[in-house]
Structures are given as C-alpha cells and as structure tokens.
Task: structure prediction
Amino acid sequence: MAEKRRSGLPATAESKPGRGDSDEELLCHAGVGALLRAALLKLVETRPEDPLGFLAEHFGNAASAPGNGPSAGGDGDAEQQQLGRALWHLSLAHHSQRSAFNSNTRMAYDLLMQGSPRHRGPGGVRGRVYTELLRGLCTEGGLSDAAAAPLLRRLHCHDHEAVPFDLFRQAALTCVVFADYVRKSQGLYAAVSCHPERPAKRVLCQAVLGTLREALETSGDSARYLEASAKISPCKVAQAMAEACSRDKGGARATMDAQEFEDAAAELFLARVRVVC
Amino acid sequence: MIIEPVDCVVKAPVSLQIGDSIRPGVYVIDINFPNGQAVKIQEIQFKNYYTAFLTVRVLKMEDPGHDSTVKWVTALRDLQLMPNPHSEAGSQDYFAVHKHQMLVEMNDVSTIRLILRQPSAAWLNFTIDEIKIYKCLKEESEIDVPNWLSNLTPVEESSDLQGLPDPENVSSSIQQMWALTEIMQSNRTTVSIGRFDVKGCYEINLLSYS
Result:
C-alpha cells in the first residue's frame, strides 16, 4: 500500500520524505547515518568516562552550530557559545595524545573561524577571541587567575590582531601543558614537605628547584637529554638534598610555603615560553 | 679489517753494470707515489725471485711544507733474502719489511729505491715481484668522556638520608616537570603574528606605504 501511494504523488516524492517512505530513505535524507558515524568515531577517540553525557554534549553542540538550527540570542551569546564549543573540543583529548589533540585544536580553530565575521580577521582568529579561549583553557586546567596571568601576558595578542593556526595551536598546547606543570609542582612540594600539615624546608625546596633548573639549562646536541636525565636521577637528587641539609645546619628552621614554591617553579617554565610577537 | 696497499708506480728494473758483463748483478727498482704525495710507510711486502740481498733507500722530504730539501737515506742495508745465493732457499719466498726494521723514520717518503743484488751467476734473472706498500694508519684520537657519563654509577648512599624526602618520588616529579617543559619548548613555532609595533611603539622600518 505504501508503494501505491508513493507512485500516485510523483511530484512531491523528492522534496520531503513522507510517512510512507522506507526507513532507509528517511535516514539517508536526514543525513542521520553520517551524524551517528561522526558521533561514534568521536566517542571512540575520546573514550570519556561518561559516554552518555559526552554524546549529549556532542549532539547539543552540533544542533546549535550556526546553520544547523535557529540561532539563539544575540551576538554576545553566540560568541560565548562558540567559545564554549571550542573549549569543549579542546578538552576531549589530553595533550599527550598528540594527534588527537592536534585534530581537536584544528576543529576548534575552524569552529571559531566559522563564527560571525567579527570573530575572525583575514589571517585567522581575532585576538580577543583567542585570549578568551586561552583564559578558558587555563581555568579548565585548574589554574587560578593569578597563576595564569604571567602566561597569558606572554601569549597575549591584541584584540584586533588575527591569529594564524600555528600560533593558536602552540598557545593552546602551552596552556594545557602549563596547567599540568603547575599540578606536578604542587605534587613535588607535597613530596618535599613529607608532611601535609607542615611546610617544607627552604633549603630542600631550593635544592630541588636547583636540580630542575640545571636540567633545563643543559644545552648541546641530542645527548643533552641523557645528560639532563642523569642530573635528575634519584641518587643525584638525594645527593643534592643531603648536601643542602648538611650545608645549612643553622637555618634549618626556615621554611617555604606552597605558593612561593609554586611561583618559583612556574617561573622556570615561563622563562622558556616564547613571547608572541 | 682489510687494509689496502697504497697506490704506487713501480718502474722497470734498471741494471747497473760495469763494463760488458754477461749478466748484471745489481738491479735498481724505483717506486713513486702518484700525485707526488709523501707517504708514511708502515710496511713493504714483496715476493722474491732469486734476489740475494736487498737494500732500501728512501727519498724523504725534510719539510713537507717547503718544496726544497729532499734527501736520500738508506733505510735498510743488505737484507739477506737468500741464505746461500747459489741455492734455492728463500729464492721465491714472500717477505715483509716493517718500519721498525728500518734505520730511519719512514715519514714523508716520496720515492723508494730498491737495490737488488745477486752475486751468484747461477741464475739467469732475478727480481722482486708483487711489491705492496702499506702506510701507517691514523692513531685513534682520545675521545673525551663527558663528566656526567662517568658519574652515572650511583654513589653509595650515605646514612644522612634520615628525615629527607623520598628521592624516588621527588626525582619522578622533577622528571615529569622537566619533560613537560621540553614538550613546550620543542613545540615552539616560528610563526609570528606580524606585529607592526615593537614594545608599544611603531617601528618605522616595518611600516609600509602601500
């Protein structure tokens, strides 16, 4: 019976799938196959802990993308939505999963370029949007505003400037790596202090930061990785700490609090971040 | 390791005779090196053919930098190749003459003159064949061992580690922080944003009129 009805309406058969159309035609017309395939690929790539929530966000982003559905609110809201979506893409893969991170960065960049003409310049994403995105990345990485400020100062672009993709990718990677670095430095302080309640000894903190600084300052050709890793081996670190303690018998009471340690460690990293120019 | 002999040009033996003897008793073979190079000789190998005594004279360059002062010196005097010139012993043996057997240092040699003597009239002809000259191999230069490489074996842990943080934990954290910094540094791009201002002020040379 469905076939008979279809043959009676030849003119409208191509425009819109009617109730009587077969299931395959319905799915094909709506592009559902491609949609589901993309969602499943993304799910497999990201492997989130909450697959249902991830799929909900994915479809929500796809639905509210420009051109896909009715636009919500004014330009300001749209910009926030774009930023939110770009941040979501960047959060899907850890930076250590380099190829996934790179492709997510590309998608975020393309997303921001697709936005309203106010968001993009002739050479790339607008500086203001870029800075907002970096700020969002730092916040998501657990960095406080005070901790992120020196990094953002180095990566900062003027509002009117157009940021090319390579710079965008480098800055995004630097932000997420810095967030990891600060977390690790907090872990290091906890290891040095030996006790969660008591602050760590100043001489020990300085010795530990000194070994890190020496390793970072190792220069040379490809053998420098071996040389640097030899400097931060457990026995070398133990030696440095023992020497520091034995040298400073009198001032053994001086301590360094967690924030000062974190700032000093961050300084070592930030000194090596290239200032955008 | 196979060491190749040095390329050399061996001239035809020249006989030295006094008067009209039936057969010469002395032959001289000159050996030159191509391109006029001066060689530091390690060894001379050859196959004997009924030569009784061998004398080696070399032409040495006194100063390789200057083109003057060449000197003929005797490197080997009357080396006996055949214990009895009239007998077969040693007549077709292989010989090798090492630089330590020579009387002089075989540095910067440009020509070698082999003087062959055979006092016995029993043999129709005598010469030496398959002459091969080997030069000194370069000495291995001492490779400096970096300091950090020699410090890799762990020093005996002193008992002063009482009260100190666990070095394994601390070292592991430091290593991860170092690795993160390296990741950031190795991903630096040289792309610039193409700013016209330098530290807030416009750089005249970067502005263009077009």
Notes: The CA atoms of residues 153 and 166 of chain A lie 18 Å apart.
